Amino acid sequence: MDENRELVNKTCERLGIKPADRFLLVRISAQTLQFYRRGELVRALPVSTSAKPPSNLKDSLGTPRGLHEIAERIGGEQPLGMVFKGRRPTGRHFFEHEDDGNLITSRILWLRGLEPGVNAGRDAEGRVVDTYERYVYIHGTNREDRIGQPQSAGCVLLTNRDMIALYDEVRVGDHVLIVD
Predict the structure, then answer these.
(1) Which residues, 6+ apart, have CB-to-CB distance to 31 below 8 Å?
(2) What is the rounded CA–CA span in Å between residue 83 and residue 90?
(3) Which domains does the chain have, with CATH numbers?
(4) Measuring CA to CA, how many Å separate 10 from each of 13, 170, 171?
(5) SS3 readout for 75-105
(6) What is the pLDDT of residues 91-137, one digit of tens each?
């Protein structure tokens, strides 16, 4: 069995969760995302994760580790490069924005943590570690030239074309495992 599929299966087994037919594996150290369907690698893509160290804590701006699921798919009808604010399209392409900050563009896959106390709810000390509540997404970016380098505020960034292609292949409930 492929080591990545085995990693996902072991994580699901530990949590008592049935593995999904489709899953994404994000490797922070390699700045990559691999998409698998029924155990077969469909695509491997460069990504950018957080400029800060990985962290599941609210306000840390770190990319959260652990097993997640795609909770919501947003923006499927929007054109490539559309900018979102508050998960709503602004009606403007990122080239039309003066803001040189990292924008949310093209599509959004909103993640929900599946590990209570790790990336869902609160940890043992009562601190918020909830990926969904932290608004952590996989999304397109206006800073495509920096893909492959840590640059986000916790989200997983892809080029806009890669984001649209991935969005078209994944569904709500698909698993996303984020590891160092």
Answers:
(1) 46, 47, 48, 49, 147, 148, 149, 150
(2) 6
(3) 49-172 (2.40.440)
(4) 5, 21, 22
(5) CCCCCCCEEEECCEEEEEEHHHCCCCCCCEE
(6) 998 988 776 689 999 999 999 999 999 999 999 999 999 999 999 99
